[in-house]
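Checklist before submission:
- one chain only
- standard amino acids only
- sequence pasted in full

Submission:
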Amino acid sequence: MGHTPTILATLEDYLGQNNLTLAQFAEHSGVHQRTLNNWIAKHRPVAIHQLDRITLAMGLPAGFFYELYIDNYIIERSPDWRRIEPLLFRCAELDKLDAIRLVVGHIMDNLLYSPKLFDAAEKLFAQGQHNAALLLYEGIAEGEKYQHSERLAICQYRLFTIQVGNNQIRNLKAATRFEPFVERLDEIDQLDALKDLANVYRSLREWDKLDATARKMRAKAEIQYSLNYNEERKHREHGKKTRGPLFGYIAYADLLCACVCEAQGDYQQALQFTYAYADLDWVIETDQETQHWVNLFKHWAEGNTYVNKLLSGDTSVLPDYVEYIAATSITTENEKLSKLLNVMIAANRYTIDIDEVLSRFEVEINSFAQLPTSTDMYTQQVMPDYFAWFGYELAYYYLKRGMYSDGFKHLIYALLKAHILNNETYFINCTGLFAHFQAHALPETREEYFKLLEKVWLDNVEKNDSAGHRN
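Returned file contents:
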């Protein structure tokens, strides 16, 4: 059985090899000689910032001794939070996730550390250190999995927020895991959680789940809005606030229900929900932010009224809808994609010539791939789905009209987006569309297409350890 090395043994070897006294090393490292003496003679551990100075003075990379520090002073001794917390934050800075995993796995044998670890996770999450925070939340969630606590529910909410990304299959799993914990959250947090879940379900086209989530959000928001102006609570302020104005959750729920009806082809019912969030005269607040959101919902309702009429076959509204899109302000530029997608769907469904529309918005169409990133769940989840869908509809339009160069360009773009999203439906639709028109593809287009298919194949066999990746 080998001897486990210690930091002290490594330091003593370094001093001997470099003919340094402890006093000289103290001056070189900036760590007091008395601190070093106490460490060596009395085995009192140094603080993590002192260890960093010692490591730097020895010419070693930052964090070089962290695993040994964990073995020597955390696992082999009674854990001391005064040492653990700064170590966790420093590991997060250096992206030493294995070290964090080691610490969390050790201390979570004692659930008394759970509140402290949770506070640290919340700080890391607020700082954007999501990979490190994820490990802390996972440790707490595993340790408290048999508890019925709000802290466990918040951990699951954070895990959901961090894990949701480009892969739609993973997103569905993350949403399914988190959904049972929503009811354990604070009443205010529930609204934001339901809104985030709804936007994920919307991007996945899980219409039944979206409908149920939106209706639940509306019911809870109505209760909170009523309580907010209840005489008994009029002079009391709730400790937590929703991310947006409270009335907005009610209106947004109606907007989501309209989306469900539209997707199911029930355009008349979709219009009824649209009229509901257009009429916000019941809103009590009169401040500037409230007016901003009221105007925004009215703006969305105007556009979606055109959409439902257009998709139901009333093509006479197309010119007005195009002017509405053109008037979209720069602050809602992201929305132009979804609006133009509606035009594309109608054009392909009812064989409408929209060459002039596409020419008018050529700059915007070419800039969609460079849309800014956002922490908002709608922009993160719904907009990428629209990218792939828009690319497919645009490719279909051009190919059906014999504009093969533009058609194949957008088809390959849509295929790539579908692969990134791991969206099988889009991917199959794109490959089917290419197969239908492949006789019109130039040799270089065919080569680009089959190279992309080969890349997808290799990615999949490697991920699933299938035959082929070792060759």
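Reviewer check: Residues 288-311 form the longest helix (24 residues).
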